[in-house]
Amino acid sequence: MKTKLLHEDGIALAAELIRQGEPVGMPTETVYGLACDAGNPDAVRKVFAAKGRPADNPLIVHIADIADWAPLVTEIPPLAQKLAERFWPGPLTIILPRTERIPSVTAGGLDSVGVRFPAHPVAQALIKASGVPIAAPSGNRSGSPSPTTSAHMLADMDGRIPAILEGGSCLCGVESTVIALDDAETVRVLRPGFVTPEQLGTIAKRVIVDDAVLAKVKEGTVVRSPGMKYRHYAPKAKVTLVQGGQDDFLRYMEQHTGTGVLALVFDADVPACQMHGIPCKAYGDTDEARAAAFFAALRDADAAGVSHLYVRAPRTDGVGLAVYNRLIRAAGYDIVHAEQTCPAEI
Ligand code: TXA
Ligand code: MG
After folding, report:
1. Are 26 and 78 in contact (CB under 8 A)?
2. What does each C-alpha distance from 37 to 31, 77, 127, 230 come to in angstroms?
3. Measured from the CB, is residue 329 less than 6 Å from ligand 1?
4. Which ligand sits closest to the CA of 63?
5. pLDDT for the residue 341
6. In a domain, 224, yes or no
7. Position in ligand 1 atom list of the atom nearest CA 175
8. How far is the CA of 231 from the centre of ligand 1 (A)?
9. What gap in Å lies between CA 4 and CA 165, rounded to an integer?
10. Non-local CB neighbours of 122 within 8 Å, separated by 6+ positions
11. What is the maximal distance between C-alpha atoms in the chain?
């Protein structure tokens, strides 16, 4: 099967494929997703197979009208309603107990479902034209960096699915914020994303960032979001995350440059890297710019034959938390504290 790249005039065809139980690539404002009819277990199984995804990792269900949420969940608590009104359409996924409208296979065997109303016009048009809620994990092969362009998705999925809808480069570049409600006033962030804990705190009284967001989940631990226990987002190149200021980073890199090495740095680091002979590529100077660029940068490093990518660590507040969360997983938790390993010369 050759995978077709469809343009805006292909939405009706993509919707037809979805109704027939086929998976289709769908652009969203976060990353490209692999869309199918959330209520069709056979279609959902095709999505798991195309991704090579473990069966216990649930899929997010996408709607294009807030009214389509109620049939999917047993109850919408007032806090969930307020969060949806504030952040939808947009990159927020809200987990609630599911109804039988969501098959167990879609939910990875859990009794809950994460629902999101994406902001991308092509995603909204596809969901509306399909007439069904759409399950869509990120459109990468399981374990690889998420696709932020149709070309990235095609690179992973060519020959595995009938079609991908073109929708340009994803503006956010990092997947949605996944939350659960601990009680009537408390939001728990299971996966950080473009909607930040600070923003959630304008609606919820308390916002807890789950321990698994910033640390490695221990073998055998039961996690609230199954995706957090898998190695993720990893390019073929070895990735090391380097913490510290610009001077610390430069000192560390001077001792680690060599064939196949590339430093992924902030824009403002480029001149200093060049002066020190450190091969580098920039991934932005703001949290938002880095979020939009880093998945593509991981894929580009592979395309350029990089064997070891050293990444200047982003901040862990705002959207930076989402970028940091993805990078520690891409690095397999190989995190270097350059300020400790390379003390300044006296
Ligand atoms: O932005 C996004 O969320 C993208 C686009 C396509 O919408 N989708 C996406 O899906 O990132 P995926 O499957 O790659 O990541 C979904 C994450 C996984 O870590 C999964 O474990 C978690 O959300 N998740 C989904 N449903 C859940 C549930 N019912 N309970 C706990 N975690 C859930
Ligand atoms: Mg994913």
Report:
1. no
2. 19, 26, 9, 25
3. no
4. 1
5. 59
6. no
7. 1
8. 14
9. 8
10. 8, 11, 26, 27, 165, 166, 167
11. 70
Question: For residue 242, what are the domain limits?
Answer: 238-341
Residue 209 lies in a domain: yes
Q: How far is the CA of 339 from the centre of ligand 2 (A)?
A: 32
**Do 208 and 270 share a domain, yes or no?**
no
Distance (Å) of CA 185 to CA 64, 198, 231, 254? 26, 15, 32, 49
222 falls within a domain = no
Q: Is the CB of 110 under 6 A from ligand 1?
A: yes
Angle at 123 between CA 118 and CA 127, to 5 degrees: 100
Model pLDDT for residues 180-222, shown as the tens digit of each residue: 999 999 999 999 999 999 999 999 999 999 999 998 877 777 7
The number of folded domains in the chain is: 2
Say if ligand 1 is within 6 A of residue 58 CB: yes
Ligand 2 center to 258 CA (angstroms) = 32
Q: Which residue has the higher pLDDT, 3 or 342?
A: 3
**Does 74 map to a domain?**
yes
Alpha-carbon distance of 310 to 34, in angstroms, equals 30
Prediction pTM value: 0.96
What's the pLDDT at 343?
A: 55
Q: Is 192 a pocket residue for ligand 1 (Cβ < 6 Å)?
A: no
**CATH no. for residue 256?**
3.40.50.11030
The token pair at 301 is 């490093």
Q: Judge if 201 and 246 occupy the same domain.
A: no
CA 53 to ligand 1: nearest atom = 13
Residues 6+ apart with CB under 8 A from 269: 246, 249, 250, 263, 280, 282, 312
Please report the atom of ligand 1 found closest to the CA of residue 140: 14
CA distance 205 to 27: 33
| 179 and 283, same domain (yes or no) | no
Identify the residue whose tokens are 């292909």.
Answer: 10
Looking at the fold, whether 201 and 243 belong to one and the same domain comes out as no
For 1, the token pair is 């099967």
> For position 171, what pLDDT does the model report?
97
Are 137 and 263 contained in the same domain?
no
The percentage of residues in the chain with a pLDDT greater than 90, rounded to a whole number, is 91
